[in-house]
Amino acid sequence: MYLVLLGPPGAGKGTQAKKLAQNLGLPHISTGDILRQNVKAGTDLGKQAKDIMDKGLLVGDDLVAKMLDERFSNPDIKNGFILDGYPRTLAQASTLDEILNRKGKVIDLVIYLNTSDEVIIKRLGGRLVCSKCGANFHAVNMPPKTQGVCDNCGADLYQRSDDNEITVRKRLEVYKHEVASLIGYYNQVKKLRSLDADLDAGLVLGQIIELSTKKA
Ligand code: AMP
């Protein structure tokens, strides 16, 4: 199952993708996570991406495509993946098709996590991320058992530098500018399913699993 989770920042793509990946036994690939790992490691890619990410803008298509192509050369994707954060533009959607076609694969399903602005701002304002395993928590909705410490692996939690209100609004603006064409594209090829992602995360996960098992 080659599955894409589409939706605004704060829709819960990362949280859902991690759970779904465990449930389906598939790798979770997040372009945002790979970029953040590069920033942390101080690679050339990370150095080029950092300022752009902090401004809430999109990293250049060529850089992200190269990074994804490299990630897809890992044999762990032979039975599928859960892709989160890519594609973000129509051009990226065609790049994705091209990279996968070269490997004899196609996207099976795209799930759109429809979310209201109000819920997004609340979710991202309190989001805490584990510095080691990437697990997500929320200061109010899903607090860790011990403040500042990841329940899963015990590492420190941090707030992403792009989760401040100004950058969140910019990320939303960038997202809204591109999303309609992506939705149109995946609708046309009959791969798109939409869910109300304002609902409780557990309910949304159940619906995603139902859609992906129907499709498999
Ligand atoms: P995310 O973790 O998906 O919210 O992504 C965080 C940031 O990484 C975005 O605001 C962009 O700056 C960058 N990024 C992630 N995925 C992409 C992508 N597919 N294309 C361009 N930039 C991306």
Tell me about this structure:
The protein is of the alpha/beta class and 216 residues long. It has a single domain (2-116, 176-215), classed as Rossmann fold (3-Layer(aba) Sandwich). Helices cover 50% and strands 15% of the residues. It has 8 helices and 8 strands. It has helices at 13-24, 31-41, 44-54, 61-72, 90-102, 117-125, 165-188, 201-215, and strands spanning 2-6, 28-30, 81-84, 109-114, 127-130, 136-138, 157-158, 192-196. The strands form 2 sheets. A 5-stranded parallel beta sheet has the order 2-3-1-4-8. Helix 2 crosses helix 3, helix 4 packs parallel to helix 5 (90-102) and helix 6 (117-125) crosses helix 7. It is globular.
Please identify the structural class as seen in this structure.
alpha/beta
Distance between the termini: 6 Å
The largest sheet has its strands arranged as 2-3-1-4-8
Number of strands: 8
SSE string: EHEHHHEHEHEEEHEH
Number of helices: 8
Largest sheet: 5 strands, parallel
Looking at this structure, what is the CATH superfamily?
A: P-loop containing nucleotide triphosphate hydrolases
The tally of structural domains comes to 1
List the uncertain runs: none
Principal-axis shape equals globular
Mean pLDDT: 93
Q: Helical content, roughly?
A: 40-55%
- By CATH, the topology is Rossmann fold
* Rg (CA only): 16 Å
CATH class: Alpha Beta
Percent strand: 5-15%
CATH architecture call: 3-Layer(aba) Sandwich
> Which small-molecule species are bound to the chains here?
adenosine monophosphate
